[in-house]
Amino acid sequence: MEVHYRWHPWFGLKVTVNRSYTRQGVVAVYATLEQEDRHQLLEAPNWMFDLATCAAMPLVDHPYVGIKHLQALKELLKSTAEGTAADVM
Fold first, then answer.
1. Nearest to 1 by CA among 48, 52, 57
2. What is the pLDDT of residues 74-83, one digit of tens each?
3. Is residue 7, in this structure, part of any structural domain at all?
4. Which of 22, 25, 57, 80 has the fewest CB atoms nearer than 10 Å to its CB?
5. How many domains does the chain have?
6. Helix residue ranges per DSSP H, the chain
7. 3-class DSSP state for residue 10?
């Protein structure tokens, strides 16, 4: 498979998929990149290997993120941090 997500360091490189799994409804894969007699491991969501999905993410001259999306991210990070703290106790 090839990494089609253009913002990933392995963009355009071919990897060997070792196995796939589903976590919280998202399909992901464990993959290996073989370069210069080295093997590097990657765990990534399956959509990063989907050309059609990644092609729909265009480069723009002036990228932006809407305030609603930033607020949603803030709430997600906050709830995740609270869940982690609760798990430790």
1. 48
2. 999 998 887 7
3. no
4. 25
5. 1
6. 51-55, 67-88
7. coil
